[in-house]
UniProtKB/TrEMBL annotation, chain A:
<keyword id="KW-0067">ATP-binding</keyword>
<dbReference type="GO" id="GO:0000287">
    <property type="term" value="F:magnesium ion binding"/>
</dbReference>
<feature type="binding site">
    <location>
        <position position="494"/>
    </location>
    <ligand>
        <name>ATP</name>
    </ligand>
</feature>
<feature type="binding site">
    <location>
        <position position="532"/>
    </location>
    <ligand>
        <name>Mg(2+) 1</name>
    </ligand>
</feature>
<keyword id="KW-0479">Metal-binding</keyword>
<dbReference type="GO" id="GO:0004642">
    <property type="term" value="F:phosphoribosylformylglycinamidine synthase activity"/>
</dbReference>
<dbReference type="InterPro" id="IPR036676">
    <property type="entry name" value="PurM-like_C_sf"/>
</dbReference>
<feature type="domain" description="PurM-like N-terminal">
    <location>
        <begin position="75"/>
        <end position="189"/>
    </location>
</feature>
<protein>
    <recommendedName>
        <fullName>Phosphoribosylformylglycinamidine synthase subunit PurL</fullName>
        <ecNumber>6.3.5.3</ecNumber>
    </recommendedName>
</protein>
UniProtKB/TrEMBL annotation, chain B:
<comment type="function">
    <text>Part of the phosphoribosylformylglycinamidine synthase complex involved in the purines biosynthetic pathway. Catalyzes the ATP-dependent conversion of formylglycinamide ribonucleotide (FGAR) and glutamine to yield formylglycinamidine ribonucleotide (FGAM) and glutamate. The FGAM synthase complex is composed of three subunits. PurQ produces an ammonia molecule by converting glutamine to glutamate. PurL transfers the ammonia molecule to FGAR to form FGAM in an ATP-dependent manner.</text>
</comment>
<keyword id="KW-0436">Ligase</keyword>
<keyword id="KW-0547">Nucleotide-binding</keyword>
<dbReference type="GO" id="GO:0005524">
    <property type="term" value="F:ATP binding"/>
</dbReference>
<comment type="pathway">
    <text>Purine metabolism; IMP biosynthesis via de novo pathway; 5-amino-1-(5-phospho-D-ribosyl)imidazole from N(2)-formyl-N(1)-(5-phospho-D-ribosyl)glycinamide: step 1/2.</text>
</comment>
<dbReference type="GO" id="GO:0005737">
    <property type="term" value="C:cytoplasm"/>
</dbReference>
<dbReference type="Pfam" id="PF13507">
    <property type="entry name" value="GATase_5"/>
</dbReference>
<dbReference type="GO" id="GO:0004642">
    <property type="term" value="F:phosphoribosylformylglycinamidine synthase activity"/>
</dbReference>
<keyword id="KW-0963">Cytoplasm</keyword>
Length: 735, 229
C-alpha cells in the first residue's frame, strides 16, 4: 500500500518541483495514477536538467567519445583511458556553480569532494585535481568575498583529502557578477582491468550504504541547480551541502581496501539527488529492480521523512552491491575506518524501484522509465547574431605600457595567490606545478618515467562572439597546452556552462559550441570521455558568457624530457612556430587597453593545429628545445613576457610594430627556444613539415627588448604580474 | 635503520613518508595503526603530515590523546628517535614532547610553496648530514605552521641548541621577508632538549629525488641512518 504522507499533489507543488504540465502528464501516463509526495520528489530529482540532461542530450550525442585508448566513455562516474602498462587514468570535470555563489566555501569544497568521489568510486586513487573558476568584475561588491571563499573551499577540501591541485584557470568578467562558475576536475590512477562500474548484477543481492550519515542538507539541490537565480537566493542557502574531507579521505581508503577483496559487485557514489539517483542508476543500468528500506539508512537527524532521505545530498556517501559471502570482510573494513555500513536494500528481478519506510511502501515506480523515459527536448533555436564588426584600431600605442597592463591586470596577472593555497606538492609526484602550460604528475607503479599532463581551458569571449569557433578554440588550446609540455593529448572532459536553454538564442549558442568542440575533438583525436552540463546560469535574466571548459589529459613517456616555458640560458634562439599574428578581434589587447569588445573570434585551422602540435611534440621528444610556450591571451608579446618572467632573464627581439603581430591571438602557435647548435635542425624539421617558423631573437639581459619598439625590465614586468592578486585581495581585509 | 610510521585516519602524507623511508633506507617502515596498542621496537618513529581526525579541533589535539601516542611518548622517553613532520610536529607539541605551539599562519591562509631552510644545528642525530648544505630549498604545505613559544622558552631553545631549522632566503639570511608563516624567530623545526625528538613544518619527504627538484630532504634520513649505525 502506498502511503502519501497526507500531502496533496497540487499544481503549485508540481511546479515547485521544477516539473511542467507536460512532464507531469507523462508521469501520470507512466505510472497510471497520481504519484505520492515521495514519488514526486524522485521524479523531480531524476528529471531535472542536472540529472537528465533533457535539453542537452540531443547535442551531447554528437560528440566523439571513442578511441583506441578509451576504456569507458560518458555514462559512467568518470571517463577511463588507457595509459599503457596495464594502467588507466580516470577523470571528469563537474560544476558546482549555484551552490558556490550562495555559500562559496562549502559550495566549492563539496564540488571538489563530489568530483573526487566520482573518480575513486571507479577504483582509482586520485592523483591530480584542477579547477576552472570564473568570477564577476573585480570591482563588483561580492567578488572579493566569493574569490576568497571559493579558493579557501577548494583548498580546504583538496588539501585535507590529499590530492595535488596542479592546474586551473581564474577569470574575471562582469557577466559572472550574479553567477560565478566553479568547475572542478579530478583524475585518478587505476589498473585498467580493475575498473568498478555502477551497473548492479545478480538478483537478491544486498545493497549497502557506506560512508557518512544522511541529514537534511542539500534536499532539492539538483533541482536548484536547474533553475535561474532571482533575488531570493539567500533563501536557498539550506540547499547547499556541507563537506567533510576527513570522512571522504576515510571513505577513499576504505573503498580502495574493500575493492581489493573482490567484495564489490557494483558501486555508485551519492552525488546529485543522493540516494534516489544512485539507487536508480545502479538498478536501471543493470536491468534490475531495487528495493530500499529507509528505516535502515543511517541518519544524523531525527524524524527524517522518506522524501527527505531520498532527496538529501549529504556528502561522502556511497551505495554498493556487495557479494553476500564477503559481508563480514566488508563490514570490518568500514568499521576500521569508523564509517557507517548498513544493508539498506536488495536487487530484485521486477524492474521496480520500491522504497519502504516505517513499514509502508512510499514509492513503487518503474525503474527504467525514471532514467530512460526522462523527457528529452529539441529546444527551439534562433539565428545567432553575427560577430560585431572590428573597427579601426589606432596602432600608435606605447607597447611597453600595453604589455604591463596585460600582464598586470585582473585577467593577465599571476595566479600564484590562488594556487599557493592549494597543496600542489602532496604525493611527491608533481614534476610541473601550476604556472606553466600544463600541470604534470609522475605516474607511480610503472617505470618511474611515465607522467600525465593536465590542462583546463576555454576563452568565453570567443565563444560569445562565435560559439562554433569558440568551442573549437577551447579544445585546441587545451590540446596545445598539453603538447607544449611534450605530452601526447589522449582525451578530454567537458564542463558546459551556459545560460537558460529555454531561450532560443542560448540554445543556438549551446548547440554551436558543442558542434565546434566535436569538430576539434575529431580532428585532433581527442575524444570527450566524460563531462557535465550546467545550464540556467543566469541571474535576473542576464546570462553568463558561454563557458564550455575543456579539461584534457596527456601522456609523457619520460618526464625528464618534459618542457617548461621559462627562458633558460643566455644566447638561446627564440623561434615562433606558426604564422605571424594578425587577428585582433576579441583580443585581450582590445578589451584591456582599448576597452573594446568587438570583432570575431580567431579562426581555428584544425589541420594546422594538428600539424604544428605534432612538430612540437617531436622536437621535445628529440630534446631539441629548451623551452616551449603556447600563444593565447595577449598573443606574442605576452607569451614572451611570461617566458622571461618565469626564467628571470630577458630577451633581445626583432619585431615589427604591427599590433596584430605583437598582440594578435591567432591560433596554432608556440614560442620555443633552442640552443644555437640545434637551430639548423629545428628549422629543417619545421620546413620538412611545412610549418612556418620565424626567428624572433635571443635570450639574454635583464630586459625584454625589441629594437625601436619597446623595452621593459623583467623585474618591472614581474612586479606588475605578481602584485595584482595579492593587492586586490588585501583590500578585502581593509574593507 | 628500522622505522615505524604512525597512521591516523586523516593523515595524507603518510604515503609520501613511507616512500621516502623506503627509498633512503631500503627498508619498508612498519605501519602502526592508531588503534593498535603495540609499537614494535624500532630505531625511528615517524608521525607524518596531514589532517589527523580532520583536525576539526585544534590541529593535532585529538591525535595527541590517542593510545598510540602514549606508545610514541614511551619510545621517545626511552631516548628513541622520533620525527614529527607538519601535522606530526603539531601532534608532538600537543603531547608535550616538544615545547611551544603551532598557530594559524600569519596570513590566515593555507600555504604551499618552496621556501628556503637553514640548518641551524648540524650536531643533532637528524641534521649531521647538513654540514656544508646549511641553506636549501624545501616545500611547505600547511595552514597552522606559525610557531610560537614564550620568551623563556625561546631562550631555552637557543641556549640548548634546540633550533634545528629556520626559514631563510636563498642565500641563507634569516630575514622577515623569508618567513612564510609568522613563526617566532623564523623557527621551522626544533628538537627536544635531549635531541632525540625533531618536529618540523617543512616536508623533507617531498625532497628526496630528482623529480622533487632537490634531494636535500634526504639528509635528515641519511643523518639518522648514520646515527643508528
Amino acid at each position: 500500500m502506498l502511503k502519501n504522507q497526507n500531502i496533496e499533489i497540487t499544481p503549485e507543488l508540481i511546479a515547485s518541483h521544477g516539473l511542467n504540465e507536460e512532464e507531469y502528464a507523462k508521469i501520470l501516463e507512466l505510472i497510471g495514477r497520481e504519484p505520492t509526495y515521495t514519488e514526486l520528489g524522485i521524479f523531480s530529482a531524476m528529471w531535472n536538467e542536472h540529472c537528465s540532461y533533457k535539453s542537452s542530450k540531443k547535442w551531447l550525442k554528437t560528440l566523439p567519445t571513442t578511441g583506441d585508448r578509451v576504456i569507458h566513455g560518458p555514462g559512467e562516474n568518470a571517463g577511463v583511458v588507457d595509459i599503457d602498462d596495464g594502467q588507466a587514468v580516470v577523470f571528469k570535470m563537474e560544476s558546482h556553480n549555484h551552490p558556490s555563489y550562495i555559500e562559496p566555501y562549502q559550495g566549492a569544497a563539496t564540488g571538489v569532494g563530489g568530483i573526487l568521489r566520482d573518480v575513486f568510486t571507479m577504483g582509482a586513487r586520485p592523483i591530480a585535481a584542477m579547477n576552472a573558476l570564473r568570477f564577476g568584475a573585480p570591482d563588483h561588491e561580492k567578488t572579493r568575498h566569493l574569490v576568497s571563499g571559493v579558493v579557501a573551499g577548494v583548498g580546504g577540501y583538496g588539501n585535507s583529502f590529499g590530492v595535488p591541485t596542479v592546474g586551473g584557470e581564474v577569470e574575471f568578467d562582469p557577466r559572472y557578477n550574479g553567477n560565478i562558475l566553479v568547475n572542478a576536475f579530478a583524475a585518478g590512477l587505476a589498473d585498467a582491468d580493475k575498473i568498478f562500474l555502477c551497473a548492479a548484477k545478480g538478483v537478491g543481492l544486498p545493497i549497502v550504504y557506506l560512508g557518512a550519515k544522511t541529514g537534511r542538507d542539500g534536499v532539492g539541490g539538483a533541482t536548484m541547480a536547474s533553475a535561474e537565480f532571482g533575488d531570493d537566493i539567500d533563501e536557498k542557502r539550506p540547499t547547499v551541502q556541507v563537506g567533510d574531507p576527513f570522512t571522504e579521505k576515510c571513505l577513499l581508503e576504505a573503498c580502495l581496501e574493500l575493492m581489493q577483496t573482490g567484495a564489490v559487485i557494483a558501486i555508485q557514489d551519492m552525488g546529485a539527488a543522493g540516494l534516489t539517483c544512485s539507487a536508480v542508476e545502479m538498478g536501471a543500468q543493470g536491468n534490475l529492480g531495487v528495493e530500499l528500506y529507509l528505516d535502515d539508512v543511517p541518519t544524523r537527524e531525527e524524524a527524517m521523512t522518506a522524501y527527505e532521505m531520498m532527496l538529501s545530498e549529504s556528502q561522502e556517501r556511497m551505495l554498493m552491491v556487495l557479494d553476500p559471502e564477503k559481508e563480514d570482510v566488508a563490514k570490518a573494513i568500514f568499521h576500521k575506518w569508523d564509517l557507517d555500513f548498513a544493508i539498506v536494500g536488495k536487487t530484485t528481478d521486477d524492474l521496480r524501484f520500491r522504497v519502504i519506510h516505517e513499514g509502508t511502501e512510499v514509492a513503487n515506480l518503474p525503474i527504467k522509465d525514471l532514467g530512460d523515459e526522462a523527457p528529452e527536448y529539441d529546444r527551439p533555436r534562433s539565428a545567432y547574431p553575427a560577430p560585431s564588426a572590428l573597427g579601426e584600431i589606432d596602432g600608435n600605442i606605447d607597447v611597453a605600457q600595453a604589455l604591463l597592463t596585460l600582464v598586470g591586470n585582473a585577467n593577465g596577472a599571476s595566479r600564484r595567490w590562488v594556487w599557493e593555497q592549494y597543496d600542489h606538492l602532496i604525493q611527491g609526484n608533481s614534476v610541473q606545478v601550476p604556472g606553466g602550460d600544463a600541470g604534470v604528475v609522475r605516474v607511480e607503479g610503472a617505470d618511474g618515467k611515465k607522467a600525465l599532463a593536465f590542462s583546463v581551458d576555454v576563452t568565453p569571449r570567443y565563444c560569445e562572439a562565435n560559439p562554433r569557433e569558440g568551442g573549437k578554440q577551447a579544445v585546441a588550446e587545451c590540446w596545445r597546452n598539453l603538447s607544449a609540455v611534450g605530452a601526447l593529448p589522449l582525451a578530454a572532459t567537458d564542463n558546459l556552462n551556459f545560460g537558460n536553454p529555454e531561450k532560443p538564442e542560448i540554445m543556438e549558442q549551446f548547440s554551436q559550441a558543442i558542434l565546434g568542440i566535436g569538430d576539434a575533438c575529431r580532428a585532433l583525436e581527442f575524444p570527450i570521455v566524460s563531462g557535465n552540463v550546467s545550464l540556467y546560469n543566469e541571474t535576473n535574466g542576464i546570462g553568463i558568457l558561454p563557458t564550455p571548459a575543456i579539461g584534457g589529459v596527456g601522456l609523457l613517456k619520460d618526464w625528464a624530457k618534459m618542457m617548461t616555458l621559462s627562458f633558460k640560458e643566455e644566447g638561446e634562439v627564440i623561434l615562433l612556430i606558426g604564422e605571424k599574428g594578425t587577428h585582433l578581434g576579441q583580443s585581450a589587447l582590445l578589451r584591456d587597453c582599448f576597452n573594446r569588445i568587438e570583432g570575431d573570434a580567431p579562426a581555428v585551422d584544425l589541420e594546422k593545429e594538428a600539424k604544428h602540435g605534432a612538430l612540437i611534440r617531436n622536437l621535445i621528444d628529440q630534446q631539441q628545445l629548451t623551452a616551449c610556450h603556447d600563444l593565447s591571451d595577449g598573443g606574442l608579446v605576452v607569451a614572451l613576457a611570461e617566458m622571461a618572467m618565469k626564467g628571470k632573464i630577458g630577451a633581445q627581439l626583432e619585431l615589427s610594430n604591427d599590433l596584430g603581430e605583437l598582440f594578435g591571438e591567432d591560433q596554432a602557435r608556440y614560442i620555443v627556444t633552442v640552443k644555437s647548435d640545434n637551430l639548423e635542425s629545428v628549422l629543417a624539421a619545421a620546413k620538412a613539415q611545412n610549418v612556418p617558423v620565424t626567428q624572433l631573437g635571443t635570450v639574454g639581459g635583464d630586459k625584454l627588448e625589441a629594437k625601436d619598439i619597446f623595452a621593459v625590465s623583467v623585474a618591472e614586468l614581474s612586479d606588475f604580474h605578481e602584485s595584482w592578486f595579492p593587492d586586490y585581495m588585501a583590500a578585502e581585509a581593509a574593507q | 635503520m628500522k622505522s615505524a610510521v604512525i597512521v591516523f585516519p586523516g593523515l595524507n602524507r603518510d604515503r609520501d613518508m613511507i616512500a621516502a623511508l623506503e627509498k633512503v633506507t631500503g627498508e619498508k617502515p612498519h605501519l602502526a595503526w592508531h588503534g593498535d596498542s603495540d609499537l614494535p621496537d624500532v630505531d625511528l618513529v615517524v608521525v607524518p603530515g596531514g589532517f589527523s581526525y580532520g583536525d576539526y579541533l585544534r590541529a593535532g589535539a585529538i591525535a595527541a590523546r590517542s593510545p598510540m601516542l602514549q606508545r610514541v611518548k614511551e619510545h621517545a622517553d626511552r631516548g628513541g628517535l622520533t620525527l614529527g613532520v607538519c601535522n606530526g610536529f603539531q601532534i608532538l607539541t600537543e603531547t608535550g614532547l616538544l615545547p611551544g605551539a603551532l598557530m594559524r599562519n600569519r596570513d590566515l591562509k593555507f600555504l604551499c610553496k618552496v621556501i628556503h631552510l637553514k640548518a641551524e644545528n648540524t650536531t643533532s642525530p637528524f641534521t649531521t648530514a647538513y654540514k656544508g648544505h646549511e641553506a636549501f630549498p624545501c616545500p611547505i604545505a600547511h595552514h597552522d605552521g606559525n610557531y610560537f613559544i614564550d620568551q623563556d622558552g625561546l631562550k631555552a631553545l637557543e641556549d640548548n641548541g634546540q633550533i634545528a631549522f629556520r626559514y631563510c632566503d636563498e642565500n641563507g639570511n634569516v630575514t622577515l621577508e623569508a618567513n612564510p608563516n609568522g613563526s617566532i624567530e623564523n623557527i621551522a623545526g626544533i628538537t627536544n632538549k635531549q635531541g632525540n625528538v625533531l618536529g618540523m613544518m617543512p616536508h623533507p619527504e617531498n625532497l628526496i629525488e630528482a623529480a622533487h627538484g632537490g634531494i636535500e630532504g634526504r639528509y635528515i634520513f641519511d643523518s639518522l641512518v648514520a646515527a643508528v649505525a
